[in-house]
Specification:
280 residues, Helicase, Ruva Protein, domain 3, 7-stranded mixed β-sheet, two-stranded antiparallel sheet, 11 helices, 35% helix
Amino acid sequence: MSAIDTLPPLREVIAQHQLTAKKQLGQNFLLDLNLTAKIARQAGDLAGSDILEIGPGPGGLTRGLLAEGARRVLAVEKDPRCLPALEEIAAAYPGRLNIIQGDALEVDPLAHLTPPVRIAANLPYNVGTELLVRWLTPPAWPPIWSSLTLMFQREVAERIIAQPGSKAYGRLAILAQWRTEARIVLNLPPEAFTPPPKVSSAVVHLDALPAPRFEADAANLSRVVAAAFNQRRKMLRAALKGLAPDIEDRLLAAGIAPTERAEQVSLEAFCALAREIAKP
């Protein structure tokens, strides 16, 4: 493994600081610095951007982001055991790494960043989906971030890019594809990690669109999609009957057969239905 900077290999860092991965924190460490640099490159040209990283652990991806030229990295780490290793990286890259110790679900790191902002992270498995949904549903669009480059379990990654008619298609696909261009850019086997997880992983890159693909109120769209997929085996006229007493008429007005099921309905049709639901 070739070095990307003058710091020690990650195995030495982990041994020195006794950083055994904790299952309850969703930790699986990537030790190959060539691989973390490759993930960093999937985030695009980092030279003029602030990067938000969630769950850096011992700092493998952090070092990749800095080595690839990130203007500044803001790392949010819940595990206090990792802080000394991250401080060593900060010392090796003066003025370019800031560290916040805390729970990513409870802190607002975006307030500490200067646009343009990219988000890149090997997300802890136990909070990854919730963080993605938050980033996809800010109060205003376009968001402060221009792109997300995130590692998930392969199953979650496939849900993000899923198309109508597939079992993976659902709320996550709608939220991601309504406002971003999403694609899987890298697949990783379990043995790439220490300890190896039981599932494969994948890196998803999402570029924020300047405006949503189709007109719809975000709250109405979320309400319609949640109701439709919460009972995905039911026909839409039954799954959505709680949204409007004349739901069949509204489905027809949106160009959707009342007998269709949620997984058959396109993003464009869901947006049309959200507009119909918004009418008095």
